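Hello Y.,

Per our agreement to keep a running log of every chain we model this quarter, I'm adding this entry. I've kept the format consistent with earlier entries: sequence first, then predicted structure.
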Amino acid sequence: MPAPDWTIDELVEALKRSQLPTVVLEGKEDIYIGRVIEDSIVEKSVDCIPVGGRSKAIELIKRRHEYANIQCAFLLDRDLWIFLGCPEFLKNCNEAVLTNGSSIENDLIVDGNIENLMTKTERVLYFRDLNTSCEWYSYWVNEAFGGSSDVFIATSVEEFCDRASGGFRAPYLVKYPGIKKCEPHFSKIFDEYQILLRGKTLAELLIRYLAGGLDGRTSRYSYENILEIGARSNGANSKRIVNEVKRILGC
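Predicted structure for the entry above:
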């Protein structure tokens, strides 16, 4: 299996030499659905490979003609495409499977009903923090619609959302003094947060409380735990991804 730190050229060469139908995954978060795909395809052996990031997966699609010798499917997060629309290069690609939500985290969290693991107290604080997170994301989505090339969404919840108050952390407001709730994006994101909020943000919010330390919680969950639960729940999102991959690979 290629390593996540391989270059694009190295990945292309590895795919040229491969004899197995291959599912290209963006990153390590996709491993859990990748295992489900491998387990679900009994007609043939399939190789699911995380390539170390979204940009590499996109570049591999653009260089698909260089390894046309193998069957290949690509699992991609919608990310900001869910607001802005898919780019032109994807419109003629019949080998790409896009997540239903913003990312694979969204899809698996929904499939696993992960929010149901929280206590009443945890849910109150979770939704408090969720409001701030949707405000934060609405600002950056608005920036993306404005054509900004500096959209800083790869940010940990711990960096912008204060654990004690649930509001924006003071250092983050100093760094980005203009950040604010932006409509109509905020309302849309909050109403459909399980689908539209950045997936890593949603997962981090859940883990903030499911990892323990509040309300006498004794069972503790990690980021990896909740993704695996979702992937193994046989939910609608996972089923669709598996079926689309099977169709592309002729299984």
